Amino acid sequence: MKQRRCKPRRARGYFTGCVAAVLLWSVASAQLRYSISEEVNEGTVVGNIAKDLGLDKSTLKERKYRIVSSNADPLFHVNHNDGILYVSRKIDREEVCERSSTCLLNLKTVLENPLEVHYVAVEVLDINDHSPSFPEKEKTLEISESVLPGVRIPLKASRDPDGGPFSVQQYKLSTNEHFRLEVKDKGEDGKIPILIVQKGLDREAAASHTLVLTALDGGKPPKSGEMNILVNVLDINDNAPVFSQDVYSVILHENAPVGATVIQVNATDVDEGPNGDVVFSFSNSVSHRLLKLFDINSLTGEVTVKGLIDYEEKDKYEIEIQASDKGLAPLATQKSVIIKIVDANDNAPEIEVTSFSSSIPEDSRPGTTVALISVNDLDSGLNGKVICSIGEDVPFALSPSLQDKMYSLVTKSPLDREKKSQYFITVVARDAGQPSLSSEKTINVVVSDVNDNSPEFSLSPYTFYVTEGNHPGASVFSVKAFDADDDGNAHISYNILRDGNEDNKLTTFLNINSENGDILALKSFDFETLKTFQFQVVASDSGTPSLSSNVTVNVFILDQNDNAPVILYPVSSNGSAEGVEEIPRNVNAGHLVTKIRAYDADIGYNGWLLFSLQEVTDHSLFGLDRYTGQIRTLRSFTETDEAEHRLVILVKDNGNVSLSATATVIVKVVEPKEAFAASDVKSSAKADEDNNVTFYLMITLGSVSVLFLISIIVLVAMQCSKSTDYTSKYLQETNYDGTLCHSIQYRSGDKRYMLVGPRMSIGSTILDEGNGFVCPFDTAELSCWFISGCTGGSHTDQISN
What we know:
The protein has seven domains: about 20-125, Cadherins (Immunoglobulin-like); about 140-235, Immunoglobulin-like (Sandwich), CATH 2.60.40; about 240-340, Cadherins (Immunoglobulin-like, Sandwich); about 350-450, Cadherins (Immunoglobulin-like), CATH 2.60.40; about 455-560, Cadherins (Immunoglobulin-like, Sandwich), CATH 2.60.40; about 565-670, Immunoglobulin-like (Sandwich); about 705-800, no CATH class. The strands form 18 sheets. The chain has a four-stranded mixed β-sheet with strand order 1-7-6-3. By secondary structure, it is mostly beta strands. It is built from five helices and 55 strands. GO terms for molecular function: calcium ion binding.
């Protein structure tokens, strides 16, 4: 009974499954197909599914009409209200359907209550949005020059992500007579470019070739990609060495020394590497006897003498030289070298000194015999006839003797050891052969000294500059004399000439080292009490009898920077350098607040003053001129600026050890009416201060001018008493900073000119090398002076700047 009951149930199940299968088949067979282009914008309409399937739009939302997809980011979506299929995001066909000719996307749409499934196919159409590209931008190929035409070289194909007609359709090769391009279509694998050699390669003509391979797709217009191909042609040994000359012929003298170059042959090979390296050798046909006489450098091709070359044995040689390369199968070339031997005078004359005196006094009379010389030549005839001679630039001569081939070396003029203390006399003996052979022998003749020269000082007169405040007992300067004589005749001792003259009292404060001429000051000099003096130094030699000479020494005392700047304005009632300035608040930029006035009793750089702001409350408000000391406003005042400003000004000179002073200015900013009232009160007080400032400045300028005029007068006076043979020097201060004068001096004929103009630094000098006079100029005058040499008078012209 149970089995009977089961059979009807199983029959009903089969029937239900069949009905469901029929329904599903009918739904699946009712598919829709749409097509869109890739890269369309989001929201683009693909098609109206509800309309095309005949669905009721009013029930779509209620039946939850949707697209079933496992993708988290679906490409399409359907609207519940109207049943239209839309694009959810941009579609890249190459990404969705890589390397597929047809890109078909299947969508499954579902409705519930009752369940319905509909299949929609969307074909994505390709567009030409990619250019062809090669795996390599540059490709290097190495091809032997021996390759035959027709050789095929496959290249890597270009890839284009686009499909169909937009994929790579053709290749192009840049024009080259040695290569052409062939394209092989491999179906789904695309088109493969093949490089074919169509003409033989010659590395010696072109070592490399540059090609450009271009791939084009089927777009309109087509897109392209390029690859650069460099073809390097590899060398083969296909060229033999070639000599640079067709005929080699050389003349070689008999008895040429071993190692002497006979000739150098040259050969070149246009191949590369070892195939082009050339080595030289003698051919196998060269006899063993020639190999003893000559040798060849395998690298340079230089043929040299190896043995004794004798004209009497053979007057002509022919040698075959081979040039070969270093290829695996070496190629060689032979060339003959003809060597002609020229007969030579085989024996040179011989010189022998039979008697010789090694030294001769410089006061010897002309005709004094120094040496006896004999000559001999083993050759005969003209080759054995000898002529003997010495140079014409020596005070000696060869006097022939009564005996054949004998000579006497005698003096022919007075000797002077101070001009030349030693003579190397070269005696030349030459035969009459062709070509003539000669021999030389050098005789060393020493001229002994006689005390015939007085000491000479290196300068006359000497001029020295000593800075005041020197240390007593220290060396301040030195003199130097030279004696042209030798040994004891040239040993010099120094002493100061002390004749008791009133003018030479200062020499009691000086001492001199008798050995080296160093002069010591026994006391300290003071520029304010002594500015210049002179004395004489005597130099004596140790000869017998002794000779001596003296020289005048001029000494100038130089000022030191021993005075600090003095503030003239501002000065307060208690004597300190402080002042108060009131200015209206409405002044403009550039308004003169005040001027710092100062002076320095020193001269030159020591007295040249520079101003700088050491402290200031507001750097943007005030500026200071470093040369004039003027304080000016840099901008207009604002309401936020303080009413009182403190400025500390540093005034320093330009001495080597700079001295300085400071001044303090209190600037009070007041309203315009207050400033006007204050200016009336201060005008009378400032008038008295200005008078004092003017008085001090006049004293300072007057002192500087007097010192300058005294220096000019001394210079002119000394120039008039000395020689006018001057040497010019250009002295320039390398560390110049400021506006002091510097000097430029030059010479024209028998006159000397000196220009003293702006930027002359302290210590600048004018040097007369002929008389040893040096003139110092320490001045701040901004003027230019021309001083002419005194040839009968002197004059000075001033040219203002």
